[in-house]
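Thread: Newbie trying to understand structure tokens

Hi all, I'm a second-year student working on a class project, and my supervisor (Dr. K.) asked me to get a predicted structure for one chain before our next meeting. I've only ever worked with sequences, so writing a 3D structure as a token string is new to me. If someone could post the tokens and maybe explain what I'm looking at, I'd be very grateful. Here's the chain:
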Amino acid sequence: MHSDPSLAFTVRVTEENEIDLLSISQLKQVAGPTPQPYRIHAQIDGKHEKTTSQGSPFWEAKLADATDSLVWRVFDNNPAFPKVRELKRGDFIEISAQWVDAGKYGLEPRQPLLRPLMESEISLLLNGSEELAAKQRADFEDILRFVDNLSDPRLKALSLLFLEKHADRFRRAAAARENHHARRGGLVEHVAQMMRTGAAICSVYPHLNHDLIIAGVLFHDCGKLWENGYPETGFNQPYNITGEMLGHIPLGLELVNRLWRDLQDRPEAAEWLQIEPPSDTVRLHLLHLIASHHGEYQFGSPVLPKTPEAIALHHVDNIDAKLEMLRRGYETSRELTPGLFERFRPWPVNIVAPLPSVRTPAPEAESEDNQ
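---
Reply by user tm_fold:
Sure, no problem. This is what the structure looks like when written as tokens:
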């Protein structure tokens, strides 16, 4: 978790403390064509040396924090060019600059000052902004509450064993590499919201198996703990050969089967033999939810949804992913005209601002003459 002391290549100026410290997400929201002074704390998620069409070298550095990422292109006429050469992937730095939205080239820090972060600053950065950290803590507490309220002792024991063994990795994982909840801790946000939505759907479709839906939500993306996992001390989401060769659906199926076998050694497993439906049937239905949750063969599901719970889970997953993508789009896309935002990858069309809920005027206070 150390920042390399050799990176102390700038002197921190006193006035820097008076410049607002923003997350990358906040910076994207406030930056405009006019330079504005801000600081960001970020990790170097990648750095590549490239050349312009004229043959001049430049660095392309990807900066990341808990909220978002951005690409910084540092050309050879930039005073920071030799300093960026010293940076390595995984380094934590502060950039204090006059930030400009350069249009097609993205955010650009002008007159940048760079310094390595201190240990205390790295710890704060890894936890995310105060708002994000509070949200993810609340989401994880909701997940624990849903699991604790499961009635099926087999699904409850399986869920608790998963959290006991893998909670730390779960709380770091992303729900995706790019499109939705693609951030450290994003999987917890995704799962918690899906549990809330799944519970709401079960309240209006009482024939759905509530316990199976909740457990299915918890495990549907559990393979992403390895496919989209984050290290303990970083925002760089590494690739790994297991995730690439198998993908999160086969990994999730393997994990659930392994945990299920572990449960069979417990004394209470003998009591489950008296419960209907049979334990192996419950396991099979849970595995089906994991296998079918993408909904279509072309999106990676080895089977299509064949039960009411599988259909519901697929759509709950899709709704939460799509609404999160729209939320990000409203924050980061260029506004083409009031209420119309430029399309973003992978969204196929421009997006329109949502219709606000109706607001009725407050009733006027009665005059004394009418009382």
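A couple of things are worth pointing out once you decode it. The chain has two domains: 5-123, 129-327. Residues 129-327 form one domain. Feel free to ask follow-ups in this thread.
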